[in-house]
Amino acid sequence: MGILEGKKLLITGVLTEASIAFTVARLAQEQGADIVLSSYGRMLPITEKIALRLPKPCAVIEL
To answer: pLDDT per residue over 8-62, tens digit each?
Structure first.
């Protein structure tokens, strides 16, 4: 059980594994949070692809 167990987070800016947002998303999942990633326009497919590299599946939405 992690410090974020049962929490829900919306994370923006996940475009590469080197981004701070990706690290936040990964650590949040490891600490038990349910996450949703957001992106927009031409960046949406990039975010969907990088989301597959996270420890657990998560939703990717367009805002």
So the answer is: 999 999 999 999 999 999 999 999 999 999 999 999 999 999 999 999 999 999 9
Please report the pLDDT score of residue 9 as a whole number: 98
Q: End-to-end CA distance of the chain: give it in Å, rounded.
A: 31
Domain range summary for the chain, segments of one domain joined by +: 8-62
Tokens at 63, concatenated: 């805002």
Q: CA 5 to CA 33: how far, in whole Å?
A: 5
Task: Please say whether the beta carbons of 52 and 60 come within 8 A.
Answer: no
Tokens representing 19? 């981004």
- Distance separating alpha carbons of residues 16 and 22, to the nearest angstrom: 7
d(CA 15, CA 24): 12
